[in-house]
Amino acid sequence: MATPPLQPPPPPPAPIVGPQYCAPFPIDLGMVRKLISITEGNFAVSDSSGNEIFKVKRVFNLIHTKRALVDAAGNTILTFKQKKITAHSRWQVFRGESTEPDDLVFTARTSSMFQLKTKLHVFLAGNKSERTCDYRVEGSWAARSCSIYVGESNYMIAQMHTKHTIQSMAIGRDTYAVTVYPNIDHAFIVALVAILNEIDHDKKDKE
Q: So which residues are the signal peptide here (predicted)?
Protein backbone atom coordinates (compact mmCIF):
# COMPACT_ATOMS: atom_id res chain seq x y z
CA MET A 1 0.00 0.00 0.00
CA ALA A 2 1.39 3.38 -0.97
CA THR A 3 2.23 5.78 1.83
CA PRO A 4 -0.17 8.72 1.74
CA PRO A 5 1.52 12.06 1.02
CA LEU A 6 2.30 14.27 3.98
CA GLN A 7 -0.14 17.08 4.48
CA PRO A 8 1.43 20.54 4.35
CA PRO A 9 1.21 22.53 7.59
CA PRO A 10 -1.67 24.98 7.76
CA PRO A 11 -0.85 28.59 6.90
CA PRO A 12 -0.18 30.82 9.90
CA PRO A 13 -3.15 32.86 11.10
CA ALA A 14 -3.35 36.48 10.03
CA PRO A 15 -1.76 39.05 12.39
CA ILE A 16 -4.17 40.14 15.12
CA VAL A 17 -2.50 43.34 16.32
CA GLY A 18 -0.22 44.02 13.35
CA PRO A 19 2.27 42.43 10.90
CA GLN A 20 5.15 44.31 12.55
CA TYR A 21 4.79 41.91 15.49
CA CYS A 22 5.30 38.80 13.36
CA ALA A 23 8.68 37.21 12.61
CA PRO A 24 9.58 34.26 10.35
CA PHE A 25 11.35 32.52 13.24
CA PRO A 26 10.50 31.53 16.83
CA ILE A 27 10.71 34.32 19.41
CA ASP A 28 11.45 33.78 23.09
CA LEU A 29 9.97 36.44 25.34
CA GLY A 30 10.85 36.88 28.99
CA MET A 31 8.08 37.99 31.34
CA VAL A 32 8.90 39.60 34.67
CA ARG A 33 5.89 39.94 36.91
CA LYS A 34 6.34 42.12 39.98
CA LEU A 35 4.76 40.36 42.93
CA ILE A 36 4.98 43.48 45.12
CA SER A 37 4.75 46.53 42.93
CA ILE A 38 4.80 50.20 43.89
CA THR A 39 5.22 51.31 40.28
CA GLU A 40 2.71 51.62 37.48
CA GLY A 41 3.97 48.55 35.66
CA ASN A 42 2.34 45.17 36.19
CA PHE A 43 5.03 43.28 34.33
CA ALA A 44 7.67 43.85 31.69
CA VAL A 45 8.38 41.83 28.55
CA SER A 46 11.89 41.44 27.12
CA ASP A 47 13.31 39.79 24.02
CA SER A 48 16.05 37.14 24.06
CA SER A 49 18.72 39.88 24.22
CA GLY A 50 17.20 41.36 27.36
CA ASN A 51 15.75 44.44 25.65
CA GLU A 52 12.42 45.53 27.10
CA ILE A 53 9.90 45.60 24.26
CA PHE A 54 6.54 45.76 26.07
CA LYS A 55 5.12 46.70 29.44
CA VAL A 56 1.68 46.20 30.93
CA LYS A 57 0.51 49.26 32.87
CA ARG A 58 -2.42 49.95 35.12
CA VAL A 59 -4.90 52.50 33.81
CA PHE A 60 -6.68 54.17 36.71
CA ASN A 61 -10.44 54.14 36.25
CA LEU A 62 -13.21 54.24 38.86
CA ILE A 63 -15.69 52.23 36.80
CA HIS A 64 -13.70 49.48 35.06
CA THR A 65 -10.53 47.55 35.71
CA LYS A 66 -8.29 48.62 32.83
CA ARG A 67 -4.76 47.80 31.70
CA ALA A 68 -2.66 48.96 28.75
CA LEU A 69 -0.02 47.21 26.69
CA VAL A 70 2.65 49.76 25.73
CA ASP A 71 5.75 49.46 23.57
CA ALA A 72 9.32 50.42 24.49
CA ALA A 73 8.66 54.05 23.51
CA GLY A 74 5.61 54.24 25.79
CA ASN A 75 3.02 54.15 23.00
CA THR A 76 -0.22 52.36 23.91
CA ILE A 77 -0.79 49.39 21.61
CA LEU A 78 -3.83 47.85 23.27
CA THR A 79 -6.21 48.71 26.10
CA PHE A 80 -7.82 45.94 28.20
CA LYS A 81 -11.17 46.43 29.94
CA GLN A 82 -12.73 43.90 32.30
CA LYS A 83 -16.47 43.39 31.98
CA LYS A 84 -18.16 43.28 35.37
CA ILE A 85 -21.19 41.23 36.44
CA THR A 86 -20.64 38.33 34.05
CA ALA A 87 -20.78 34.58 34.64
CA HIS A 88 -17.22 34.27 33.38
CA SER A 89 -14.08 36.33 33.87
CA ARG A 90 -14.34 38.36 30.68
CA TRP A 91 -11.99 40.93 29.14
CA GLN A 92 -12.35 43.11 26.07
CA VAL A 93 -9.24 44.30 24.24
CA PHE A 94 -9.24 47.44 22.09
CA ARG A 95 -6.77 49.04 19.72
CA GLY A 96 -4.72 51.94 21.10
CA GLU A 97 -6.21 53.91 23.98
CA SER A 98 -9.78 53.46 22.76
CA THR A 99 -12.55 51.46 24.40
CA GLU A 100 -15.06 52.13 21.62
CA PRO A 101 -16.86 49.12 20.07
CA ASP A 102 -15.46 49.91 16.60
CA ASP A 103 -11.92 49.50 17.96
CA LEU A 104 -12.52 46.11 19.60
CA VAL A 105 -9.79 43.61 18.64
CA PHE A 106 -10.85 40.55 20.60
CA THR A 107 -12.66 39.29 23.70
CA ALA A 108 -11.29 36.66 26.08
CA ARG A 109 -13.20 34.77 28.75
CA THR A 110 -12.74 31.76 30.98
CA SER A 111 -14.58 28.63 29.87
CA SER A 112 -16.47 28.36 33.19
CA MET A 113 -16.85 30.14 36.52
CA PHE A 114 -14.96 27.43 38.41
CA GLN A 115 -12.05 25.66 36.77
CA LEU A 116 -9.14 23.72 38.20
CA LYS A 117 -7.02 24.13 35.09
CA THR A 118 -6.55 27.25 33.02
CA LYS A 119 -8.80 27.47 29.98
CA LEU A 120 -9.36 30.73 28.15
CA HIS A 121 -11.50 31.15 25.03
CA VAL A 122 -10.64 33.99 22.65
CA PHE A 123 -13.07 35.50 20.15
CA LEU A 124 -11.98 37.99 17.48
CA ALA A 125 -14.08 41.12 17.01
CA GLY A 126 -15.83 39.72 13.94
CA ASN A 127 -16.96 36.58 15.80
CA LYS A 128 -20.23 38.01 17.07
CA SER A 129 -21.96 34.73 17.88
CA GLU A 130 -19.05 33.31 19.93
CA ARG A 131 -20.30 29.78 19.20
CA THR A 132 -16.74 28.59 18.62
CA CYS A 133 -13.55 30.27 19.75
CA ASP A 134 -10.90 31.62 17.37
CA TYR A 135 -8.10 30.80 19.82
CA ARG A 136 -7.85 29.05 23.15
CA VAL A 137 -5.38 28.82 26.02
CA GLU A 138 -5.03 25.61 28.04
CA GLY A 139 -2.72 24.41 30.78
CA SER A 140 -1.80 25.44 34.30
CA TRP A 141 -1.21 29.07 35.14
CA ALA A 142 -0.06 28.08 38.64
CA ALA A 143 2.78 26.07 37.05
CA ARG A 144 3.30 28.74 34.37
CA SER A 145 2.73 26.03 31.78
CA CYS A 146 0.12 27.05 29.22
CA SER A 147 -0.21 26.50 25.48
CA ILE A 148 -2.07 28.66 22.97
CA TYR A 149 -3.92 27.03 20.07
CA VAL A 150 -5.90 28.08 17.01
CA GLY A 151 -9.59 27.45 17.67
CA GLU A 152 -10.38 23.95 18.90
CA SER A 153 -7.54 22.44 16.86
CA ASN A 154 -4.16 21.09 17.99
CA TYR A 155 -2.37 23.83 16.02
CA MET A 156 -0.16 25.37 18.70
CA ILE A 157 1.11 28.92 18.18
CA ALA A 158 2.84 29.69 21.50
CA GLN A 159 3.91 27.97 24.70
CA MET A 160 4.61 29.31 28.16
CA HIS A 161 7.15 27.87 30.61
CA THR A 162 8.82 28.83 33.89
CA LYS A 163 12.14 30.60 34.06
CA HIS A 164 13.04 31.08 37.71
CA THR A 165 16.39 32.55 38.70
CA ILE A 166 17.95 33.07 42.11
CA GLN A 167 17.98 36.82 41.48
CA SER A 168 14.30 36.96 40.53
CA MET A 169 13.23 35.04 43.62
CA ALA A 170 15.42 37.18 45.90
CA ILE A 171 13.79 40.45 44.77
CA GLY A 172 10.23 39.11 44.84
CA ARG A 173 9.58 38.66 41.17
CA ASP A 174 8.06 35.87 39.15
CA THR A 175 9.98 35.29 35.91
CA TYR A 176 8.75 33.08 33.12
CA ALA A 177 9.08 32.79 29.35
CA VAL A 178 6.85 32.42 26.31
CA THR A 179 8.01 30.89 23.05
CA VAL A 180 6.07 32.36 20.14
CA TYR A 181 6.14 30.25 16.98
CA PRO A 182 7.13 31.64 13.55
CA ASN A 183 4.83 34.17 11.86
CA ILE A 184 2.64 34.53 14.96
CA ASP A 185 1.69 37.96 16.30
CA HIS A 186 3.67 38.17 19.55
CA ALA A 187 1.87 41.33 20.74
CA PHE A 188 -1.33 39.28 20.67
CA ILE A 189 0.33 36.50 22.66
CA VAL A 190 1.59 38.97 25.28
CA ALA A 191 -1.94 40.38 25.58
CA LEU A 192 -3.31 36.91 26.33
CA VAL A 193 -0.65 36.33 29.00
CA ALA A 194 -1.50 39.71 30.53
CA ILE A 195 -5.16 38.69 30.77
CA LEU A 196 -4.24 35.38 32.42
CA ASN A 197 -2.20 37.38 34.93
CA GLU A 198 -5.22 39.57 35.74
CA ILE A 199 -7.57 36.60 36.08
CA ASP A 200 -5.12 35.03 38.52
CA HIS A 201 -5.04 38.24 40.59
CA ASP A 202 -8.85 38.40 40.65
CA LYS A 203 -9.04 34.78 41.79
CA LYS A 204 -6.59 35.39 44.64
CA ASP A 205 -8.44 38.52 45.73
CA LYS A 206 -11.65 36.49 46.11
CA GLU A 207 -10.05 33.70 48.11
A: none
Any domain includes 98: yes
Judged by DSSP in three states, 118 sits in strand
Residue 152: give the domain boundaries: 22-206
CATH number of the domain that residue 75 is part of = 2.40.160.200
* Count of structural domains, the chain: 1
Tell whether 8 is covered by a domain: no
Contact 188, 20 (CB under 8 A): no
Q: What is the pLDDT of residues 102-144, one digit of tens each?
A: 999 999 998 655 455 678 999 999 999 999 999 999 988 777 7
Buried b (16+ CB within 10 A) or exposed e, 177-207: bbbbbebbbbbbbbbbbbbbbbbeeeeeeee
User: Each residue of 56-88: pLDDT tens digit?
Assistant: 988 876 666 789 999 999 999 999 998 775 556
